[in-house]
Amino acid sequence: MPTDPVERFLAALDPDHREAVAAKSHEEQRQLAAAWERELESDDELDTLDELSPPAAEAEAARRVMERGTD
């Protein structure tokens, strides 16, 4: 499993979003990955999901970040 936040974020994205984010600048990717990490840390529902399925929690957080854009 990748340890770099950007790589982890890209891995959590669906293929269409992964391609779109990969085309962005590294700084934009880092901002999105940071927003994704904040989403994972701050949402209690994701904590529960993470206990059942960490990949599902990461994918849900990635979906939310992409719907919102950067903070």
The SSE string, one letter per element, is: HHHHH
* Helix content range: over 70%
Q: Tell me the distance between the termini.
A: 26 Å
Rg value = 11 Å
Binned strand content: under 5%
The SS-based structural class is: mainly alpha
Q: In total, how many domains does the architecture comprise?
A: 1
Mean pLDDT, rounded to whole units?
89
Number of strands: 0
Can you tell me the overall shape?
Answer: globular
Kindly report the oligomeric state of this protein. single chain
The number of helical segments is 5
Spans with pLDDT under 50 lasting ≥5 residues? none
Largest sheet: none
Short account of what is shown:
The protein is 80% helix and 0% strand. The mean pLDDT is 89.
What report would you give on this structure?
The chain is mainly alpha-helical and 71 residues long. It has helices at residues 5-12, 15-22, 26-42, 44-52, 54-68. Residues 60-71 have a biased composition (Basic and acidic residues). Residues 40-50 have a biased composition (Acidic residues). Residues 23-71 are annotated as: Disordered.
Describe the secondary-structure layout.
Blueprint: H1 5-12, H2 15-22, H3 26-42, H4 44-52, H5 54-68
Helix pairs in contact: 1-3, 3-5, 4-5
Structure keywords:
71 residues, mainly alpha, 5 helices, 80% helix
